[in-house]
Design brief:
mainly beta, Immunoglobulin-like, 998 residues, six-stranded antiparallel barrel, elongated, eight-stranded antiparallel β-sheet, paralog of FGE (formylglycine-generating enzyme), 65 strands, single chain
Length: 998
């Protein structure tokens, strides 16, 4: 009959008989609305209601935080469930949610006693205790990432290279202590003793085993009775426990730093400079590195998984496991890192590498000496490899999970911080743009559920005025990276296109979807204003090829040439027509390179074709210059070392041959070896006149030369290979005299052509005082300058050793030079230096001396019979001039005497016109004999004297006639034999022709 019995106003369906309806009255009820939680309904004034028995958070990543609304009678606004007392009006309550705290599990503490593990995101209050160093092992999570491994200062074996680690790992924050070793292995191997000191004197084989444990990187198995073999079965948490790889170790040691150390070395590590007495120290007693790891620098060397290799190379690596192994019969060396207490601070660098023998078993069978490791310098720390990859999340303007490092795929709830006064939440701005953050994430959802991507991520809460209708997404899709921002409808801002890649220019903005961006928006302007429409918009700056202005290239025939004719043109295939012979174009980059061989003018047409078939064509004008004549032909010179005083010491001769096509061959004659080099062309021009080339031998010698195309002067250096650390400088000169048609060169040569005599007096002689093989005589050489600049050198050293050499004259603004390098005494000794001819415009006016910056040296290595004790190093001077064979010797040398320290015999005319002899009219008790060859200017003879035994002996001498300025002189030497320690040595003494001193 009654439609609704509980409604005061209802309908009645009248039956066919009388009925009575009675209205019953109770307490008045009011509506309670509960948003996102249970408990809503109609209740009487004062009625107690349970609210929040169940809640409906926005995502699984959120949890109840507090109640908002009519909360005056809520028993506990921060609890759900709780109770609420209903008032005499309709009321509303809203459950507010916060993101759940997502643990990062930064630290892992493993209990060695009960084999339990616990995680935390921060060190304990009060810091780490001895318990963490003895009966527990504490690990720090190291997230995957990339870094530069190796030394920036180029230390041997530390070549820099990029390394990427794709998996997280945990690493012990302390070096394994003696107590931890004893807890697991049950032994006490250390030299120093103390529960919290690092364990030391342990082999790789003690840590991993000598059987299965030596198979890394083939597998990660360990021997059951090794340290790792006993640690792994304790818990699944440590079931993969191992040593860190070398790359993991350095990544963790650097902790994001790039210098030699992860911070001040004295604050971080124990080394020889701050450890007294020299011994290991309690782990963790220095400051940690930026990632919370202690003693990564110093205390003890730390063994790593990898086999040791001298250098890891420069190639980029991903998850490197180290070399595959060692060769048969080689010592099994494993890597150690970090340095130790007894090393200098330099030995604690992040990149320092060392090795230790891993076991007493050789890789190929057999055994090696079991090192006792007498000092406590070798330890290790434990790594726990993970299968996860983590990245950094930064939330700006958020609550709870505002930053941290999270594993890829982790679900993370987000909530914005309370909005500033007059503002409200608008959207989440994501950087970088375009990442998949999971189905639970929407940028306009105030409380989304984010799925951690495989990249570092920054999310920013954007707030807008309370009266705003909302935000719209504006994306500027730049080449290589997009930029996202959220804008209110009607907001005015400026956008700017990135600078164009070389070879391109900005063309236009593409707007998607098509939208009106305001009157100030000009699609063809690289920088323009935008008025935000009420729609999400993406703009893309587009670029077109900026065809370059006409290019004029001026390569030189015979010189390597490179031109980036495709600069700024990406993703195109290049071709060229009309290229000079010897040049080619790289069809991927558009770079033209090679060695042009034919001079002339060329117009090269270059075509760049894109994948869509579009082509761009442009011209490059080439003028191939001929190779300078000064860079062609033969070059001669010498190489030298320079001492601390700036004096040069000649160390060899250099000859170089260059063709007009630029092909080069070179030969360097040194003390004990000859080196040959070749190159297909000159390497390049460093200026308008300087041309360079580098030639290398397989053995490692490197020849770097720079030639002046205006003068033909060549300078450079010789390094590497058989020279070791030595550096030899090079000076050479083009021989212009070979060209008989070069009138200017032949006129210069005419200034020097002729025959010259040069005396070589000894200035300084260093020898063993015990033998005192002093040389005081004067050797000599004759120089014959011939056609084509050839110089014939012949003569004798003061001890009678003959010298002979053929070389080439080279000339500069200061005179002409003759390089000398004559190997003596079975290539064990040498006569070397540089003679200079100057002082006139014709041969008869020229004088010869030793070039002052190059020592004129005579080096005798000593007799092996005397154990080299009779060796000497002599420095010589040079006195010489043009010698005219038509000179009247009698007129030139009248009144002069042949002299030694003991004799002085006058010279007079001989029987032949113009000749010289000893004056027969005077007493000659020493039977002095003298003979001179007028044609060559060489003189010789003998005299008698008493030797060291008191016996009369005949001594022979030889020398040369020459001029010292305007004065005629003669200089030479005789050799006296002496007996020292029953061995015969020869010492030279001077004999000369001059006017006697008064």
């Amino acid at each position: 009959m009654l439609a609704e019995t509980t409604n005061a106003t209802t309908t009645v369906t009248m039956p066919g008989y009388p009925v009575t309806v009675t209205a019953n009255y109770g307490d008045k009820r009011y509506a309670l609305t509960v948003n996102f939680a249970s408990g809503g309904g109609n209740y009487t004034n004062g009625q107690e209601v349970t609210i929040g028995s169940s809640t409906t958070p926005p995502t699984a990543g959120h949890e109840f935080d507090h109640w908002e609304g009519d909360t005056a009678t809520v028993a506990d606004v921060n609890s759900a469930p709780t109770t609420f007392r209903m008032g005499a009006t309709n009321m509303t309550l809203t459950a507010i949610f916060r993101p759940k705290v997502v643990p990062q599990n930064t630290y892992l503490a493993f209990n060695l006693t009960d084999n339990t593990a616990s995680y935390s995101d921060a060190p304990p209050v009060g810091g780490w205790t001895d318990q963490h160093k003895t009966t527990q092992m504490v690990f720090r999570k190291i997230s995957a990432g990339s870094f530069t491994m190796g030394s920036a200062s180029g230390q041997p074996g530390e070549t820099q290279h990029a390394v990427t680690l794709t998996r997280d790992f945990y690493l012990g924050i302390f070096e394994v202590t003696q107590k931890q070793w004893e807890e697991i292995r049950g032994t006490k191997p250390s030299f120093f003793t103390g529960d919290t000191l690092p364990v030391e004197r342990v082999y790789y084989s003690d840590i991993r085993g000598n059987n299965d444990g030596k198979n890394w990187p083939a597998d990660n198995k360990v021997d059951y009775d090794s340290f790792m073999g006993r640690l792994r079965p304790k818990s699944p948490v440590v079931s993969a426990a191992d040593l860190p790889t070398e790359a993991q170790w350095e990544y963790a040691c650097r902790a994001g730093t790039t210098g030699d150390y992860a911070g001040p070395v004295d604050a971080l590590g124990w080394h020889a400079g701050n450890t007294a007495p020299a011994r290991t120290q309690v782990v963790g007693s220095k400051q940690p590195n930026p990632w919370g790891l202690y003693d990564m620098h110093g205390n003890v060397w730390e063994v790593c998984l990898d086999w040791y290799k001298m250098d890891l190379g420069a190639a980029a690596q991903t998850d490197p496991a180290g070399p595959d192994g060692v060769g048969p019969r080689l010592p099994p060396l494993r890597v150690m890192r970090g340095g130790a207490y007894n090393e200098p601070a330099e030995g604690l660098r992040s990149a320092i590498r060392q090795n230790m023998i891993a076991t007493n078993q050789l890789a190929g069978g057999g055994s090696a000496t079991n090192l006792a490791l007498p000092y406590g310098t070798y330890g290790f720390r434990v790594a726990l490899p993970q299968s996860t990859t983590s990245f950094e999340l930064t939330v700006v303007g958020g609550e709870v999970n505002t930053s941290g490092v999270f594993t890829v795929g982790t679900k993370i709830g987000l909530s914005p911080a309370p909005a500033p006064a007059g503002m409200k939440f608008g959207a989440w701005q994501v950087n970088p743009v375009g990442m998949d953050l999971g189905a639970g994430f929407s940028p306009t959802n105030q409380q989304p559920l984010l799925t951690m991507p495989a990249a570092n991520l920054t999310i920013t809460a954007i707030y807008i005025p309370e009266d705003s209708s909302g935000l719209f997404r504006f994306v500027q899709n730049n080449p290589g990276a997009s930029v996202e921002s959220w804008r209110a409808n009607g907001e005015t801002f400026t956008i700017t296109a990135p600078a164009a890649t070389p070879g391109y220019r900005f063309s236009t903005w593409t707007v998607t979807p098509a939208a009106y961006l305001g009157a100030g928006f000009v699609s063809t302007d690289a920088s323009t204003t935008v008025v935000m429409p009420a729609v999400d918009v993406t703009v893309i700056p587009t670029y077109v090829l900026n065809v370059p202005d006409p290019i004029v290239a001026t390569p030189t025939a015979g010189v390597a040439f490179t031109l980036d004719a495709g600069a700024g043109i990406d993703a195109a295939k290049f071709s060229a027509s009309g290229l000079p012979r010897g040049l080619r174009i790289d069809n991927t980059t558009g770079t033209i390179s090679g060695v042009p061989s034919r001079p002339g003018d060329y117009v090269v047409t270059i075509t760049a074709q894109y994948a869509d078939g579009t082509t761009v064509t442009y011209d490059v004008a080439f003028t191939v210059e001929p190779l300078s004549p000064e860079l062609q032909g033969s070059f001669t010179g010498y190489c030298y070392a320079e001492d601390s005083a700036g004096q040069r010491h000649a160390r060899g001769l250099v000859t170089l041959r260059a063709t007009k096509a630029g092909r080069l061959t070179a030969k360097v004659s040194l003390q004990r070896l000859n080196l040959s080099f070749s190159a297909k062309s000159w390497s390049g021009m460093t200026s308008e006149t300087e041309c360079t080339v580098t030639m290398e031998r397989r053995q490692g010698e490197r020849f770097d030369l720079t030639a002046d195309s205006a003068t033909g002067l060549v300078e450079g250096k010789l390094t590497g290979g058989s020279l070791g650390d030595a550096l030899l400088s090079i000076v050479a000169q083009r021989n212009a005299f070979q060209d008989r048609n070069d009138v200017a060169a032949q006129e210069v040569l005419a200034t020097y052509k002729g025959y010259y005599t040069v005396a070589l007096p000894t200035e300084v002689c260093e020898t063993d005082p015990a033998i005192d093989n002093q040389q005081s005589g004067s050797g000599y050489v004759t120089l014959t300058v011939r056609n084509r600049g050839v110089v014939r050198v012949a003569g004798k050293m003061a001890d009678g050793t003959r010298v002979s050499q053929s070389t080439t004259l080279f000339v500069d603004d200061y005179g002409a030079y003759v390089p000398l390098f004559v190997r003596l005494y079975a290539r064990r000794g040498v006569f070397a230096g540089l003679l200079q001819l100057d002082g006139g415009t014709q041969p008869t006016d020229l004088k010869i001396n030793a070039e002052p910056t190059v020592l004129l040296e005579w080096i005798y290595p000593g007799s092996t019979m005397l154990e080299l004790a009779d060796r000497f190093d002599a420095q010589l001077s040079a006195i010489g001039a043009y010698y005219d064979s038509l000179t009247d010797l009698q007129a030139a040398y009248a009144g002069m005497f042949l002299q030694t320290e003991e004799i002085a015999m006058p010279l007079v005319a001989g029987r032949t016109a113009g000749s010289l002899v000893i004056d027969p009219a005077i007493d000659n008790p020493q039977a002095v004999k003298f003979r001179v060859t007028r044609r060559s200017g060489l003189f010789s003879g003998s005299f008698r004297t008493l030797n060291e035994a008191g016996r009369t002996v005949t001594l022979r001498y030889a020398g040369v006639l020459t001029r010292d300025g305007d004065f005629y002189i003669g200089d030479g030497a005789y050799v006296e034999q002496r007996t020292i320690n029953k061995r015969r040595i020869k010492s030279s003494h001077r004999i000369w022709i001059d006017t006697p001193a008064p």
